[in-house]
């Protein structure tokens, strides 16, 4: 039996009463998500943790040598940690844990972004023959990790102090290594890598839109999850499945 207008009205009225967004923050006050935004922030990354664990296990199982295992472990762990740390931070924020606890997970969440960027490059840098044998890209594996270390140190010292600069550093850490790699070598999977990069860049717009777009941070989370999925399948297909054949 189809619901009538009278039975639907209380639901629509309740939906309208949900506060989807608070006012935008400023340089002195951090943005305070609404309860629904907190829940969406938790779900959009929390639901990706188990698939990330499974993906890391699949890469290890598909590995044929130590180099592949090493890349799979580093990449898989970072994949799990980026979503786990994000979920834990948003959980502590939602349940309003002690300020020190929230700050710990917030710092960990932000630091994991730099680590995840480096780890996303890592399988390509040590498994792709084209990259490993090119004079320009030969030593990039440690350069991306140097970027990550510098980024984490900066972030821990100036946590939330220069927000626009911090966002710019995330973008530069992701883009700068890609430019010489793309110019120097032609690798299979390049289109997927570009697509993932574009998704991350589009997501940054929502990352900076709290208080301007409802559930903006959760939308950013969704872009991150899809971009990570695109990059994962590129790694799996071109560096493990194709390498096996």
Automatic annotation (TrEMBL):
Zn(2+) binds at residues 90, 217, 221. The chain crosses the membrane at residues 39-60, 72-91, 111-131, 138-155, 167-185, 218-239. It is found in: Cell membrane. The keyword Transmembrane helix applies. Keywords: Cell membrane, Membrane, Metal-binding, Transmembrane, Transmembrane helix, Zinc. One of its GO terms (molecular function) is metal ion binding. One of its GO terms (cellular component) is plasma membrane. It is a multi-pass membrane protein. Belongs to the ADIPOR family. PANTHER family: ADIPOR/PROGESTIN RECEPTOR-RELATED, LD03007P. This is Uncharacterized protein.
């Amino acid at each position: 039996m189809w619901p009538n207008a009278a039975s639907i009205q209380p639901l629509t009225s309740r939906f309208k009463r949900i506060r989807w967004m608070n006012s935008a923050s400023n340089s002195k006050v951090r943005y305070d998500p609404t309860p629904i935004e907190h829940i969406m922030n938790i779900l959009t990354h929390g639901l990706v943790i188990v698939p990330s664990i499974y993906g890391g296990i699949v890469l290890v199982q598909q590995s044929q040598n130590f180099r592949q295992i090493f890349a799979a472990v580093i990449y898989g762990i970072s994949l799990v940690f980026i979503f786990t740390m994000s979920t834990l931070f948003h959980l502590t924020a939602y349940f309003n844990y002690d300020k020190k606890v929230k700050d710990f997970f917030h710092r960990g969440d932000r630091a994991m972004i730099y680590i995840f960027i480096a780890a996303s490059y890592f399988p390509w840098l040590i498994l792709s023959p084209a990259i490993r044998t090119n004079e320009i890209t030969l030593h990039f594996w440690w350069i991306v990790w140097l970027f990550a270390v510098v980024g984490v140190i900066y972030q821990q010292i100036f946590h939330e102090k220069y927000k626009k600069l911090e966002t710019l550093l995330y973008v530069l850490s992701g883009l700068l290594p890609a430019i010489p790699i793309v110019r120097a070598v032609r690798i299979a999977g390049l289109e997927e890598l570009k697509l993932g990069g574009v998704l991350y860049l589009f997501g940054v717009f929502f990352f900076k839109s709290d208080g301007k777009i409802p559930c903006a941070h959760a939308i950013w989370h969704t872009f991150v999850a899809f971009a990570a999925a695109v990059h994962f399948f590129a790694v799996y297909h071109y560096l493990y499945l194709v390498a096996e054949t």
